[in-house]
Design a protein that fits this description.
Blueprint: H1 7-10, H2 15-25, H3 30-47, H4 52-59, H5 70-83, E1 85-88, E2 94-98, E3 109-115, H6 132-139, E4 146-150, H7 162-175, E5 178-188, H8 190-201, E6 208-212, H9 221-224, E7 229-234, H10 243-254, E8 259-264, H11 272-276, H12 279-286
Parallel strand pairs: 3-4, 3-5, 5-6, 6-7, 7-8
Antiparallel strand pairs: 1-2, 2-4
Helix pairs in contact: 2-5, 3-4
Length: about 290
Amino acid sequence: MVTNEPFYFRCGKTARNVIEFMQVCYEYPHDAAYHLINGHIAPWFNYVNRPELARIASDALLLNAPNIDDQAVRLTWFLENLCFERKVSGSGLNYFLHIPIREKGREKLPTILFLHGSAEKGAELSGIKNQALPDIISKNPDFPFLTLMPQCTLNSNWQNQFQNLKSLVQEACNLYPIDPGRIYLTGISMGGAGAWKLAAQYPELFAALVPCCGYGDPLWADRLKKIPTWIFHGAMDPLVPVHNSEKMFDALTALRGNVRLTIYPQAEHDCWTETYNNPGFYQWLLEQHLPK
């Protein structure tokens, strides 16, 4: 039952509460739902300094969907737009942005830069949402890291985008509530390879490095040795053999780098699902920060 008491006074201030309220809201006729959004949801979004999300909640009412599926379609559309904002960097990179919903006045946020694999290259951002870290975020709107998820163009690779990626990070630090001492770099497959080389190119930018089924050059180890690094790979990987990660681990260990290696004995190329679903992985990230 929906009461007249303002929504943001009635429940905890989390994205999960918003979704529960919107499930009720979208069951109402259009005019009533619009009134509920403006009377209950909009003040809460203003309170957490995210007024643009009230517009998204209202826009979902305008979707043309079969009547029987209206609630589900509208809720799905709202959830996707709650988790992801489409952006274009000053250097022309398309990217998704995830900003956790939080109260005003909170400290700056730990941030992840995620590089996708070769299958997700292209010009349509929606192509990167259904795998690895973006998929985790799409199902967890309370995901606590601000996350930058750029898309590599079809005829390029991450190695050709390093200056653009550096510019994206610098631009994002000026636009969003990012803690510059807690920016973490991770990627899968082609993105894992890109993460290795990007970190070697700009080691001063990243508080931690997490390549999944990537490949790098042991000659980069001297530039990487001060970055806390956690490497993941599947022992049965047929596309990027596990020795690619093992040789990077050996090179960093020889220089007394802060490095760990996890090999999943039964995993093939997909070592990221288990990695990104592991709460201990995120706890480890939060323990890493650049020297002050």
